[in-house]
């Protein structure tokens, strides 16, 4: 094994790029691996208004582009590969990709998570153009507009209540005839005058030319299909699916500890239960999945990797 990296970062969303930046700046031999396009979920966000210090009109792609620039400025290597298998059992960690095999003294898992999709026509095309999976990120764009929230669990109902601070009306669209959220959350929701409910209903199609303009609903009891069209004065409205996330952690099963949902628990220093393996960003067990927390995770993980290598690898 001639080519051993100090650290391999798996994933190049904000957490992975932050980790790569900090690791390379600390003069560690750093490789950042990415399966698809760089940037993760933030790449689909048209405007980044809640990232501290972001410039006016900053977009997800522009923020990511600057992060990539910094990572490369400090000398981190970047490669595109799909990881098929990992072996964390030895002192030197092995990461097997479709293209090649990588070896490292430490690994930072920053593979992220992906929102569960409704799975209807128009959803993918209009993501970031009226369809959003992050109320905290995008609520402000729907000030005084109408919004539909899809889901009935804790997150869906809490996010719907948050959106009522901005939208003039929020409708929760749920497949069942009662919410799954905790009773205490339900009580607050039913008292909120700006919240309405569509029971036994699913979204069949999202329509629009450049922005969301209409949505087709199907009543799952009667089979009736109805269409909601944006108010002509508004021109658009919001659709927020909150039906859960899927952590991209399948290849780490049995390699590091995970919770029941597949998220990776860490301590405050991003350490997993396996020495030399760290996790950062949305793949971690955490309360807030945002760019600001992802980049913090990445920075902490990289600093801890440096300390781990100092203590475990003598020159």
Automatic annotation (TrEMBL):
SUPFAM superfamilies hit by this protein: FAD/NAD(P)-binding domain
Subunit: Homodimer.
Enzyme Commission number(s) from the entry: 1.8.1.9
Protein name stated in the entry: Thioredoxin reductase
Cofactor binding note of this UniProt entry: Binds 1 FAD per subunit.
Pfam family, one: Pyr_redox_2
GO molecular function: thioredoxin-disulfide reductase (NADPH) activity
Similarity remark: Belongs to the class-II pyridine nucleotide-disulfide oxidoreductase family.
Positions of the FAD/NAD(P)-binding domain: 5-298
Recorded GO CC terms: cytoplasm
Species in which this protein is naturally found: Anaerosolibacter carboniphilus
Catalysed transformations (reactions): [thioredoxin]-dithiol + NADP(+) = [thioredoxin]-disulfide + NADPH + H(+)
Top-rank EC class of the record's enzyme: oxidoreductase
PANTHER family given in the database record: THIOREDOXIN REDUCTASE 1-RELATED-RELATED
BP GO terms, sorted: removal of superoxide radicals
Essential cofactor(s): FAD
Domain of life from the UniProt record: Bacteria
UniProt KW keywords: Disulfide bond, FAD, Flavoprotein, NADP, Oxidoreductase, Redox-active center
């Amino acid at each position: 094994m001639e080519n051993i990296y100090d650290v391999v970062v798996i994933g190049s969303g904000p957490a992975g790029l932050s980790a790569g930046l900090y690791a390379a700046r600390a003069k560690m031999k750093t490789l950042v691996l990415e399966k698809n396009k760089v940037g993760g979920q933030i790449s689909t966000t048209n405007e980044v208004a809640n990232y501290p210090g972001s410039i006016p009109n900053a977009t997800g792609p522009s923020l990511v582009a600057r992060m990539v620039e910094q990572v490369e400025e400090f000398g981190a290597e970047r490669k595109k590969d799909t990881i098929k298998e990992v072996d964390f059992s030895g002192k030197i960690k092995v990461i097997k990709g479709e293209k090649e095999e990588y070896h490292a003294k430490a690994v930072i898992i920053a593979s992220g998570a992906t929102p569960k999709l409704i799975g209807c026509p128009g959803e993918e095309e209009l993501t970031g153009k009226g369809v959003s999976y992050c109320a905290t990120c995008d609520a402000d764009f729907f000030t005084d507009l109408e919004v539909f929230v899809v889901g009935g669990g804790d997150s869906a109902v809490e996010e719907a209540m948050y959106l009522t601070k901005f939208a003039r009306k929020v409708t929760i669209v749920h497949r069942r005839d009662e919410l799954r959220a905790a009773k205490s959350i339900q009580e607050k929701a039913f008292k909120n005058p700006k919240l309405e409910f569509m029971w036994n209903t699913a979204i069949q199609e999202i329509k629009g030319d450049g922005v969301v303009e209409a949505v087709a609903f199907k009543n799952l009891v009667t089979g009736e299909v109805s269409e909601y069209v944006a108010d002509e004065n508004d021109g658009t409205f919001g659709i927020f699916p909150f039906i859960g996330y899927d952590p991209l952690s399948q290849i780490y099963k049995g390699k590091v500890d995970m919770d029941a949902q597949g998220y990776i628990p860490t301590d405050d220093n991003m350490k997993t239960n396996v020495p030399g393996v760290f996790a950062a960003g949305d793949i971690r067990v955490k309360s807030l999945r945002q760019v600001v927390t992802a980049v913090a995770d990445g920075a902490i993980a990289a600093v801890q990797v440096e300390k781990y290598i100092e203590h475990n690898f003598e020159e």
